[in-house]
Design brief:
The protein starts with a helix and ends in a 17-residue tail after the last helix. The longest helix has 19 residues. The protein is built from 12 helices and no strands. With 213 residues, it is an all-alpha fold. The structure holds iron/sulfur cluster.
Length: 213
């Protein structure tokens, strides 16, 4: 029942919007950095910060690890909360350097539960950021939940309003095939639907592909 509902949501969104080609980024490292930078800001601001890092030739684990904190913060200033985010990035890089000898491929080759545990142990990395890195940078099957997921599913009574991050994640992971490509596309489609139709204050149900679901 839940499986059919979830697949119906997916199919309608996919038919309406088409493939979303997430996550934008040339390398897994860039995707990981983008996942940290996108906290509490829009993607346009993240792109400016990424462009600064690219322009300075420091968008690699080695080069960024060698950057002084103040300079890193300057490069990522457009993404907002730049001192905090620079600290988070440095914590993450330090963790990979210390525990995985700076080998990103080795780090990303850990099993999804191990990888997310490791990421969650880094100060400043929460569940959504950790799961975005596992799914979009490491290409491993874990479902990313965000406010749009919660809003859309609760408005359609697929979940209770008070469901938390892990309950929603479990719902997807227990009822859908463990498929990174599906999880990738599904999350991106929910974000698109949330931004365009399922707005917080005033949902635009009449135009939305999920109307009368
Ligand atoms: S806009 Fe309306 S139809 Fe679309 S997802 Fe939100 S509640 Fe559902």
């Amino acid at each position: 029942m839940i499986t059919e509902q979830l697949l119906e949501v997916y199919q309608r969104l996919h038919d309406h919007f088409g493939p979303q080609h997430w996550w934008p980024g040339d390398t897994p490292f860039e995707v990981m950095v983008g996942a940290v930078l996108t906290q509490n800001t829009n993607w346009q601001n993240v792109e400016k910060a990424i462009d600064n890092l690219k322009g300075a030739g420091v968008l690699s684990l080695e080069a960024m690890s060698a950057l002084p904190a103040g300079l890193l913060a300057e490069y990522i200033r457009p993404a907002g909360y730049y001192n905090i985010k620079a600290g988070r990035l440095r914590n993450l890089l330090q963790f990979i350097n210390h525990n995985y000898d700076g080998d990103l491929d080795y780090f990303f080759a850990q099993s999804p539960p191990t990888l997310r545990e490791e990421l969650l142990s880094v100060k400043g990395i929460g569940p959504e950021t950790a799961d975005s890195i596992v799914l979009y940078a490491a290409g491993q099957p874990v479902f990313v939940v965000d406010a749009y997921t919660h809003r859309i599913l609760s408005r359609h009574n697929i979940i209770d309003e008070e469901y938390g991050y892990y309950e929603i994640q479990e719902l997807f992971m227990d009822n859908l095939a463990e498929d990174a490509a599906l999880f990738n596309e599904y999350h991106a489609l929910l974000v698109r639907a949330g931004k365009e139709y399922c707005k917080k204050s005033k949902p635009r149900c009449e135009q939305c592909p999920l109307d009368r679901l």
